[in-house]
């Protein structure tokens, strides 16, 4: 029987007996992981869209001094591209970016990326996705995967006079390398992980370092270590050793840190003790120590691993300013006590919009359902990877996934495995589309909401970027290993397995 083009397009790839056309949005670490693992599973018709001119995501965008990863590099690695050459236990940003670029090149990912191309619109036309780019190109895909990262949209503080500052001013994720820091009066707003790394790296060379702190942060020492050439040689000779060290760090971090944040009070107390000891030992001045002491539980905000901040803020040329900011003026920052802190350079270490995910790309699912409106500032997903009403659409590092101080590369890889299981199911059963059932999604999110109060993120007495508009930390509240294990035992009953989209539409219309 001859099939008309329109019939063909309405029929899913699995029924056509073809490869699915897969679009991946974002060529950061989760996009790279997705391409490699999908190909290994036999899915080869893939296009990656990247708004920038290079792969690397967060490691491409963040170029501030002192940038390093506070997750051990042996674990913050692709499982399929372990790297014997990491220079340090916690590697620095440029080295991680080089690793991203090398892995993408070695595995042929770079070749399939459409660079400098932002996806502006994704619209579901059952059973496919119509994808529109900022160049006006339109393409159709059977599967759309969002790999846009969690923290990609800089957050600018809503402070009076921000635009009036006459000196040099930039957000940490948009570092201006042309600005000289040596000998100048530098101010930084914020004391999160980013600020801690910057302050630790630049205070010795600036004239004055003024740190504007709204809330103090707990910091645990970073057990940094440079790897010897002999150790690198050994790892190169014995690849099994690399796998062992990967497993060692993944188990240690999940069992200790993952457990502490999700309810293990003994492990949480150990983290608190380590942070308190660090502060007491590293900051001699009692007045400064008091200003740096948080009033909430350690690990409530994302725990900062940093050994450089306390020595830097204790220097004679550093000031910790805890009075609130009244406004920003052309010459500096005026605090509520009326004092003007004169500045040549203003650095905004004020974090990111953690609720954006794939937004502001407009994503429209079944029946015109808009993803941004569906989320309304409180993004949720089924098992962090899928949303009811958005068939054949997947999120990597989506809402309610495990984040914390874990390896996001590892988490993305597990999520890709889950998506592969769903594609295999579609292929084997000849399905047009799959989509999480509303009741399964509701039950899943209800269980998470019930569990959240047991986490330190909710009970630790702090505010943080983990909280969404609903006032709930948007993270996986059970031990992270449970999530990773679940990614390998998908329950297909949680999904609408749609054999025929036309029939499904009629059924839904009738319901
Ligand atoms: O951002 P943040 P970040 N007036 O949101 C303050 C990852 N990361 O870029 O605490 C005054 O943590 C705000 O104050 P408060 C990591 O996941 C990873 O530092 O809200 N202050 C806070 O101090 C991390 O958690 C690595 O009271 C204002 C700061 O700005 C995430 O990125 C390294 C303000 C924002 O802190 C974000 O970290 C670095 C205002 N109006 C970062 N608005 C690794 O090593 C905000 N603040 C993997």
TrEMBL record:
Pfam families: FMO-like (PF00743). It comes from the Bacteria. InterPro entries: FAD-bind_Monooxygenase_sf, FAD/NAD-bd_sf, Flavin_mOase-like. One of its GO terms (molecular function) is NADP binding. Keywords: FAD, Flavoprotein, Oxidoreductase. SUPFAM superfamilies: FAD/NAD(P)-binding domain. This is NAD(P)-binding protein. It comes from Pyruvatibacter mobilis.
């Amino acid at each position: 029987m001859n099939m008309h083009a329109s019939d063909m397009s309405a029929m899913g790839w699995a029924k056509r007996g073809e490869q699915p056309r897969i679009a991946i949005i974002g060529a950061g670490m989760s996009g790279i992981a997705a391409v490699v693992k999908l190909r290994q599973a036999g899915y080869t018709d893939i296009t990656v869209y990247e708004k920038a001119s290079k792969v690397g995501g967060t490691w491409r965008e963040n170029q501030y001094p002192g940038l390093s990863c506070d997750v051990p590099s042996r674990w913050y690695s692709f499982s399929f591209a372990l790297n014997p050459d990491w220079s340090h236990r916690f590697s620095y940003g440029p080295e991680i970016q080089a690793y991203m670029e090398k892995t993408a090149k070695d595995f042929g990912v770079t070749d399939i990326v459409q660079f400098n191309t932002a996806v502006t619109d994704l619209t579901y036309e059952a059973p496919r996705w119509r994808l529109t780019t900022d160049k006006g190109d339109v393409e159709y895909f059977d599967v759309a995967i969002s790999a846009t990262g969690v923290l990609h949209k800089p957050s600018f503080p809503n402070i009076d006079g921000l635009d009036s500052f006459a000196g040099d001013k930039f957000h940490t994720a948009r570092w201006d390398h042309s600005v000289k820091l040596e000998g100048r009066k530098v101010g930084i707003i914020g004391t999160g992980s980013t600020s801690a790394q910057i302050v630790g790296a630049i205070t010795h060379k600036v004239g004055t370092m003024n740190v504007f702190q709204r809330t103090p942060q707990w910091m645990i020492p970073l057990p940094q270590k440079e790897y010897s050439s002999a150790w690198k040689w050994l790892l190169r000779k014995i690849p099994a050793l690399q796998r062992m060290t990967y497993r060692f760090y993944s188990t240690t971090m999940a069992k200790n840190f993952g457990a502490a944040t999700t309810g293990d009070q003994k492990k949480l107390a150990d983290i608190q003790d380590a942070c308190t000891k660090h502060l007491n030992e590293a900051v001699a001045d009692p007045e400064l120590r008091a200003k740096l002491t948080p009033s909430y539980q350690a690990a409530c905000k994302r725990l900062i691993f940093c050994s450089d901040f306390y020595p830097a803020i204790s220097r004679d040329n550093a000031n910790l300013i805890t009075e609130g900011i009244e406004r920003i003026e052309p010459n500096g920052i005026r605090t509520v006590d009326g004092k003007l802190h004169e500045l040549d350079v203003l650095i905004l270490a004020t974090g990111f919009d953690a609720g954006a995910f794939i937004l502001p790309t407009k994503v429209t699912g079944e029946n015109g359902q808009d993803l941004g409106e569906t989320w309304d500032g409180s993004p949720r997903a089924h098992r962090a990877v899928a949303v009811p009403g958005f068939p054949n659409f997947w999120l990597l590092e989506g809402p309610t996934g495990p984040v914390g101080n874990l390896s996001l590369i590892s988490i993305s890889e597990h999520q890709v495995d889950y998506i592969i299981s769903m594609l295999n199911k579609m292929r084997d059963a000849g399905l047009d589309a799959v989509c999480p059932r509303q009741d399964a999604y509701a039950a899943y999110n209800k269980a998470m909401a019930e569990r959240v109060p047991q986490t330190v993120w909710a009970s630790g007495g702090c505010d943080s970027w983990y909280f969404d508009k609903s006032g709930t930390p948007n993270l996986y509240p059970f031990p992270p290993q449970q999530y990773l294990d679940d990614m390998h035992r998908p329950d297909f009953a949680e999904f609408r397995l749609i054999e025929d989209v036309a029939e499904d539409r009629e059924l839904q219309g009738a319901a």
